[in-house]
Amino acid sequence: MALCGRGWARCARGLRLGALPRPGLCGTRGVRGSNPFTRQQEEEWRRRNRSAVGYIAAAAVGMVGLSYAAVPLYRLYCQATGLGGTAGTGGDAERIERMEPVRDRLIRVTFNADTHASIQWNFKPQQSEIYVVPGETALAFYKAKNPTDKPIIGISTYNVVPFEAGQYFNKIQCFCFEEQRLNPQEEVDMPVFFYIDPEFAEDPKMAKVDLITLSYTFFEAKEGQKLPLPGYQ
User: Fold this and answer.
1) CA 143 to CA 141: how far, in whole Å?
2) 17-31, 101-115, 185-199, 218-232: lowest mean pLDDT where?
3) Between 188 and 70, residue with greater pLDDT
4) Please, are residues 118 and 148 in contact by the beta-carbon 8 Å criterion?
5) Separation in Å, CA 177 to CA 77, 111, 160
6) Taking Cα atoms as reference points, which of 128, 136, 114, 117 lies closest to residue 197?
7) What sign for the dihedral angle of Cα 128, 155, 229, 132?
8) Mean pLDDT across the chain
9) By the 8 A CB rule, do 127 and 141 touch?
């Protein structure tokens, strides 16, 4: 205590130089011996910390796995319910054959095409619009071209506007969510075979809807690429 009792200058001078005070200086005394109870507590805390870290790591891995599974599961749910303007999948041949067209309900379907900045493709619909009635199948085409000197793999998302009509817009065949490889200067036609469910005409919320727009957006397919969820591009 005598060293500290002579003034704080010596202690402060030692700390400014980066020196740690020695036991016995500045009121600090060395601890003689050891406490076995303290050692046991420390070992128990370390064991618990290791267990907690293990649980956290396992939970993190599980959450990552669920996040990768969430997108395809959500996509299937959207296709089944029409959530977010996503067209349903209507490949049931027997049901299609039994459909009765609603002739007094004419609907104009327009087509839109976009490309993300990540892909150097030319992409456009081959027709601007067609007229259909609920319960009647229709066929439309898009055209894609790779104008570069290297192969490019693309993948597309789609949605339907108005969103509420998505549950009635059923695609029998299309090119969405599947990788499409185009070689240099290659050009291809991409068909979309679809129909509007006859129940569209019975829904009061669709009473004033006579225009539906089908939109596709192409992205370059890359490892780790995360596509926007349907209807929320």
Assistant:
1) 7
2) 17-31
3) 188
4) no
5) 14, 18, 15
6) 136
7) positive
8) 74
9) yes
- Nearest 5°: CA angle at 230, between 221 and 122? 45
Report the pLDDT value the prediction gives residue 228, as an integer from 0 to 100: 55
CA angle, corner 55, sides to 53 and 58, nearest 5? 110
Asked which of 95-104, 132-141, 144-153 is least confident by mean pLDDT, the reply is: 95-104
Three-class DSSP labels, the chain: CHHHHCCHHHHHHHHHCCCCCCCCCCCCCCCCCCCHHHHHHHHHHHHHHHHHHHHHHHHHHHHHHHHHHHHHHHHHHHHHHCHHHCCEECCCHHHHHHCCCCCCCCEEEEEEEEECCCCCCEEEECCCEEEECCCCEEEEEEEEECCCCCCEEEEEEEEEECHHHHHHEEEEECCCCCCEEECCCCEEEEEEEEEECHHHHHCHHHCCCCEEEEEEEEEECCCCCCCCCCCCC
> With contact defined as beta carbons under 8 Å apart, do 90 and 192 qualify?
no
For the chain, give the number of residues: 233
Half-sphere exposure of 88 (CA within 13 A, CB side): 18
pLDDT score recorded for residue 89 = 53
| Radius of gyration (C-alpha) of the chain in whole angstroms | 33
pLDDT band at 26 (very low <50, low <70, confident <90, very high): very low
